[in-house]
Amino acid sequence: MKKGKKLYEGKAKILYAAPEKGTAIQHFKDHATAFNNQKKTIIEGKGILNNRISEHILSSLNQIGIQTHLIKRINMREQLVKLVEIIPIEFIVRNIATGSLTKRLGIEDGTVFERPLVEFCYKNDELNDPLVAREHIYAFGWSNAMELDWITEQCFRINDFMQGMFKSVGIKLVDFKLEFGRLNQNGKKSIILADEISPDTCRLWDALSDKKLDKDRFRKDLGNILEAYQEVARRLNILHEETNIKTVEFGKLRSIKVRK
Ligand code: 5GP
Asked: Which of 76, 137, 169, 218 makes a 20 to 30 Å CA pair with 198?
Protein backbone atom coordinates (compact mmCIF):
# COMPACT_ATOMS: atom_id res chain seq x y z
CA MET A 1 0.00 0.00 0.00
CA LYS A 2 1.37 3.40 -1.01
CA LYS A 3 2.15 5.68 1.92
CA GLY A 4 1.11 9.33 1.66
CA LYS A 5 2.54 12.26 3.59
CA LYS A 6 3.58 11.99 7.20
CA LEU A 7 0.70 13.19 9.37
CA TYR A 8 2.29 12.79 12.78
CA GLU A 9 5.44 11.38 14.34
CA GLY A 10 5.42 10.26 17.95
CA LYS A 11 8.07 8.61 20.10
CA ALA A 12 7.29 5.06 19.01
CA LYS A 13 5.07 5.42 15.94
CA ILE A 14 4.56 7.39 12.73
CA LEU A 15 1.20 8.04 11.11
CA TYR A 16 1.10 8.40 7.31
CA ALA A 17 -1.82 9.28 5.06
CA ALA A 18 -3.29 6.22 3.31
CA PRO A 19 -4.82 6.12 -0.19
CA GLU A 20 -8.41 5.88 1.07
CA LYS A 21 -9.88 8.99 2.71
CA GLY A 22 -10.41 8.69 6.43
CA THR A 23 -7.70 6.05 6.85
CA ALA A 24 -4.04 6.17 7.82
CA ILE A 25 -1.01 3.90 8.01
CA GLN A 26 0.36 3.44 11.51
CA HIS A 27 4.07 2.55 11.44
CA PHE A 28 5.73 1.02 14.53
CA LYS A 29 9.29 2.22 15.16
CA ASP A 30 12.01 0.49 17.18
CA HIS A 31 12.58 3.57 19.33
CA ALA A 32 12.13 3.21 23.06
CA THR A 33 11.82 6.28 25.25
CA ALA A 34 11.14 6.78 28.92
CA PHE A 35 10.89 9.58 31.46
CA ASN A 36 9.56 12.01 28.87
CA ASN A 37 12.27 11.31 26.29
CA GLN A 38 15.17 11.74 28.76
CA LYS A 39 16.12 8.11 28.27
CA LYS A 40 16.09 6.70 24.75
CA THR A 41 17.44 3.87 22.68
CA ILE A 42 16.63 1.73 19.68
CA ILE A 43 15.59 -1.86 20.29
CA GLU A 44 15.71 -3.54 16.92
CA GLY A 45 12.65 -5.67 16.33
CA LYS A 46 10.48 -4.02 19.01
CA GLY A 47 8.28 -2.30 16.41
CA ILE A 48 7.61 -5.60 14.67
CA LEU A 49 6.57 -7.28 17.90
CA ASN A 50 4.40 -4.36 19.03
CA ASN A 51 2.68 -4.23 15.64
CA ARG A 52 1.83 -7.91 15.92
CA ILE A 53 0.85 -7.88 19.63
CA SER A 54 -1.30 -4.76 19.22
CA GLU A 55 -2.98 -6.21 16.14
CA HIS A 56 -3.78 -9.37 18.11
CA ILE A 57 -5.28 -7.49 21.07
CA LEU A 58 -7.21 -4.90 19.06
CA SER A 59 -8.65 -7.45 16.66
CA SER A 60 -9.69 -9.62 19.64
CA LEU A 61 -11.40 -6.56 21.15
CA ASN A 62 -13.11 -5.90 17.79
CA GLN A 63 -14.45 -9.45 17.95
CA ILE A 64 -16.15 -8.80 21.30
CA GLY A 65 -17.78 -5.63 20.00
CA ILE A 66 -15.30 -2.99 21.11
CA GLN A 67 -14.83 -0.59 18.22
CA THR A 68 -11.17 0.12 17.48
CA HIS A 69 -9.29 2.05 14.80
CA LEU A 70 -7.63 -1.12 13.48
CA ILE A 71 -8.66 -2.09 9.96
CA LYS A 72 -5.88 -4.60 9.26
CA ARG A 73 -2.16 -5.20 9.61
CA ILE A 74 -0.53 -4.59 6.23
CA ASN A 75 3.05 -5.67 6.83
CA MET A 76 5.53 -6.41 9.60
CA ARG A 77 5.67 -2.81 10.83
CA GLU A 78 2.43 -1.24 9.65
CA GLN A 79 -1.30 -1.29 10.14
CA LEU A 80 -4.10 0.35 8.23
CA VAL A 81 -6.23 2.29 10.72
CA LYS A 82 -9.20 4.63 10.77
CA LEU A 83 -8.15 8.24 11.07
CA VAL A 84 -9.60 9.73 14.25
CA GLU A 85 -9.37 12.94 16.23
CA ILE A 86 -7.46 11.78 19.30
CA ILE A 87 -8.98 12.88 22.62
CA PRO A 88 -6.01 14.46 24.46
CA ILE A 89 -6.42 12.24 27.53
CA GLU A 90 -4.47 9.10 28.43
CA PHE A 91 -6.78 6.67 30.21
CA ILE A 92 -4.72 4.67 32.70
CA VAL A 93 -6.31 1.48 34.02
CA ARG A 94 -4.74 -0.08 37.11
CA ASN A 95 -5.32 -3.46 38.74
CA ILE A 96 -2.19 -3.52 40.90
CA ALA A 97 -0.41 -0.52 42.43
CA THR A 98 2.98 0.29 40.96
CA GLY A 99 4.74 3.01 38.95
CA SER A 100 3.65 6.62 39.27
CA LEU A 101 0.71 5.76 41.54
CA THR A 102 2.88 4.36 44.32
CA LYS A 103 5.23 7.35 44.10
CA ARG A 104 2.36 9.83 44.10
CA LEU A 105 0.26 8.34 46.89
CA GLY A 106 2.65 6.18 48.89
CA ILE A 107 0.57 3.05 48.26
CA GLU A 108 2.65 -0.11 48.69
CA ASP A 109 3.98 -1.50 45.42
CA GLY A 110 2.08 -4.66 44.46
CA THR A 111 -1.14 -3.80 46.32
CA VAL A 112 -3.97 -5.51 44.45
CA PHE A 113 -7.06 -3.32 44.04
CA GLU A 114 -10.49 -4.69 44.83
CA ARG A 115 -11.79 -2.84 41.81
CA PRO A 116 -9.80 -1.47 38.88
CA LEU A 117 -8.90 2.17 38.98
CA VAL A 118 -9.19 4.49 35.96
CA GLU A 119 -7.09 7.65 35.96
CA PHE A 120 -7.04 10.54 33.47
CA CYS A 121 -3.79 12.16 32.34
CA TYR A 122 -3.57 15.16 30.03
CA LYS A 123 -1.60 14.14 26.92
CA ASN A 124 1.14 16.73 26.88
CA ASP A 125 4.83 15.78 26.71
CA GLU A 126 6.03 19.22 27.76
CA LEU A 127 4.01 18.92 30.98
CA ASN A 128 4.88 15.24 31.45
CA ASP A 129 1.31 13.98 30.91
CA PRO A 130 -0.03 15.25 34.26
CA LEU A 131 -2.84 13.54 36.16
CA VAL A 132 -6.02 15.62 35.84
CA ALA A 133 -9.51 15.54 37.36
CA ARG A 134 -12.74 15.35 35.37
CA GLU A 135 -13.26 19.03 36.22
CA HIS A 136 -10.08 19.99 34.36
CA ILE A 137 -11.20 17.95 31.36
CA TYR A 138 -14.58 19.72 31.30
CA ALA A 139 -13.16 23.18 32.08
CA PHE A 140 -10.67 23.08 29.22
CA GLY A 141 -13.02 21.38 26.77
CA TRP A 142 -10.88 18.27 26.26
CA SER A 143 -13.95 16.06 26.61
CA ASN A 144 -17.36 16.04 28.28
CA ALA A 145 -19.20 13.98 30.91
CA MET A 146 -21.04 11.85 28.36
CA GLU A 147 -17.85 10.93 26.52
CA LEU A 148 -15.91 10.29 29.74
CA ASP A 149 -18.63 8.05 31.21
CA TRP A 150 -18.78 6.04 28.02
CA ILE A 151 -14.99 5.75 27.70
CA THR A 152 -14.59 4.76 31.36
CA GLU A 153 -17.14 1.99 30.79
CA GLN A 154 -15.13 0.83 27.76
CA CYS A 155 -11.94 0.89 29.87
CA PHE A 156 -13.53 -1.55 32.34
CA ARG A 157 -14.73 -3.83 29.53
CA ILE A 158 -11.32 -3.79 27.88
CA ASN A 159 -9.65 -4.46 31.23
CA ASP A 160 -11.95 -7.44 31.94
CA PHE A 161 -11.22 -8.93 28.56
CA MET A 162 -7.49 -8.33 28.65
CA GLN A 163 -7.12 -9.57 32.22
CA GLY A 164 -8.73 -12.86 31.18
CA MET A 165 -6.65 -13.11 28.02
CA PHE A 166 -3.36 -12.56 29.86
CA LYS A 167 -4.34 -14.67 32.88
CA SER A 168 -4.91 -17.65 30.59
CA VAL A 169 -1.26 -17.41 29.49
CA GLY A 170 0.21 -16.91 32.97
CA ILE A 171 0.54 -13.14 32.88
CA LYS A 172 -0.81 -10.55 35.36
CA LEU A 173 -2.17 -7.41 33.71
CA VAL A 174 -0.91 -4.82 36.20
CA ASP A 175 -1.86 -1.59 34.42
CA PHE A 176 -2.07 -0.07 30.96
CA LYS A 177 -2.74 3.09 28.99
CA LEU A 178 -5.50 3.58 26.44
CA GLU A 179 -6.22 6.35 23.97
CA PHE A 180 -9.54 7.00 22.29
CA GLY A 181 -10.46 9.02 19.22
CA ARG A 182 -13.53 10.65 17.72
CA LEU A 183 -14.68 9.25 14.40
CA ASN A 184 -17.09 10.89 12.01
CA GLN A 185 -18.04 8.34 9.36
CA ASN A 186 -20.77 9.26 6.88
CA GLY A 187 -22.19 11.77 9.36
CA LYS A 188 -22.28 9.13 12.14
CA LYS A 189 -20.20 10.14 15.15
CA SER A 190 -18.60 7.61 17.48
CA ILE A 191 -15.68 7.17 19.84
CA ILE A 192 -13.33 4.30 19.17
CA LEU A 193 -10.21 2.84 20.76
CA ALA A 194 -7.07 4.12 19.00
CA ASP A 195 -3.26 4.03 19.33
CA GLU A 196 -1.79 0.65 20.41
CA ILE A 197 -1.89 -1.93 23.19
CA SER A 198 1.49 -3.60 23.62
CA PRO A 199 4.21 -4.20 26.23
CA ASP A 200 5.13 -0.53 25.59
CA THR A 201 1.78 0.60 26.99
CA CYS A 202 1.01 -2.12 29.56
CA ARG A 203 2.68 -3.51 32.66
CA LEU A 204 2.73 -7.28 32.38
CA TRP A 205 4.14 -9.51 35.13
CA ASP A 206 4.71 -13.25 34.96
CA ALA A 207 1.98 -14.74 37.17
CA LEU A 208 4.35 -16.99 39.12
CA SER A 209 7.53 -14.97 39.46
CA ASP A 210 6.30 -11.37 38.94
CA LYS A 211 9.08 -11.06 36.33
CA LYS A 212 8.48 -7.93 34.28
CA LEU A 213 7.58 -8.59 30.65
CA ASP A 214 7.12 -4.98 29.52
CA LYS A 215 8.74 -1.59 29.02
CA ASP A 216 9.75 -1.41 32.70
CA ARG A 217 12.68 -3.63 31.65
CA PHE A 218 13.93 -0.60 29.70
CA ARG A 219 12.83 2.04 32.24
CA LYS A 220 14.57 0.17 35.08
CA ASP A 221 17.58 -1.12 33.10
CA LEU A 222 16.61 -4.75 33.66
CA GLY A 223 17.90 -5.85 30.23
CA ASN A 224 16.51 -8.52 27.88
CA ILE A 225 13.76 -6.20 26.68
CA LEU A 226 13.25 -7.86 23.34
CA GLU A 227 13.14 -11.31 24.94
CA ALA A 228 10.39 -10.12 27.29
CA TYR A 229 8.27 -8.75 24.43
CA GLN A 230 8.93 -11.94 22.49
CA GLU A 231 7.83 -13.98 25.50
CA VAL A 232 4.52 -12.08 25.57
CA ALA A 233 4.00 -12.73 21.84
CA ARG A 234 4.99 -16.39 22.24
CA ARG A 235 2.52 -16.92 25.10
CA LEU A 236 -0.24 -15.23 23.09
CA ASN A 237 0.60 -17.78 20.39
CA ILE A 238 1.42 -15.20 17.74
CA LEU A 239 5.02 -16.14 17.05
CA HIS A 240 5.36 -18.43 14.10
CA GLU A 241 8.18 -19.97 12.16
CA GLU A 242 7.52 -18.26 8.83
CA THR A 243 9.67 -15.18 9.30
CA ASN A 244 13.03 -15.09 10.92
CA ILE A 245 14.13 -11.54 11.70
CA LYS A 246 17.75 -11.18 12.61
CA THR A 247 18.24 -8.43 15.11
CA VAL A 248 21.04 -7.16 17.29
CA GLU A 249 20.51 -6.16 20.91
CA PHE A 250 23.32 -5.51 23.39
CA GLY A 251 25.72 -6.65 20.67
CA LYS A 252 24.22 -10.14 20.47
CA LEU A 253 22.60 -11.54 17.35
CA ARG A 254 19.08 -12.73 18.01
CA SER A 255 16.23 -14.08 15.94
CA ILE A 256 12.59 -13.14 16.21
CA LYS A 257 10.03 -15.29 14.51
CA VAL A 258 6.86 -13.46 13.59
CA ARG A 259 4.09 -14.47 11.21
CA LYS A 260 4.30 -12.42 8.01
P1 5GP B 1 2.57 5.09 35.21
O2 5GP B 1 1.56 6.20 35.40
O3 5GP B 1 2.65 4.20 36.39
O4 5GP B 1 3.89 5.61 34.74
O5 5GP B 1 2.02 4.22 33.98
C6 5GP B 1 0.84 3.47 34.08
C7 5GP B 1 0.68 2.59 32.85
O8 5GP B 1 0.39 3.39 31.71
C9 5GP B 1 1.94 1.80 32.47
O10 5GP B 1 1.53 0.56 31.95
C11 5GP B 1 2.60 2.63 31.40
O12 5GP B 1 3.31 1.83 30.49
C13 5GP B 1 1.39 3.28 30.72
N14 5GP B 1 1.68 4.64 30.30
C15 5GP B 1 1.43 5.79 30.95
N16 5GP B 1 1.81 6.86 30.24
C17 5GP B 1 2.34 6.40 29.11
C18 5GP B 1 2.92 7.01 27.95
O19 5GP B 1 3.01 8.24 27.82
N20 5GP B 1 3.38 6.17 26.99
C21 5GP B 1 3.28 4.81 27.09
N22 5GP B 1 3.76 4.05 26.10
N23 5GP B 1 2.71 4.20 28.15
C24 5GP B 1 2.26 4.97 29.15
From this structure: 137
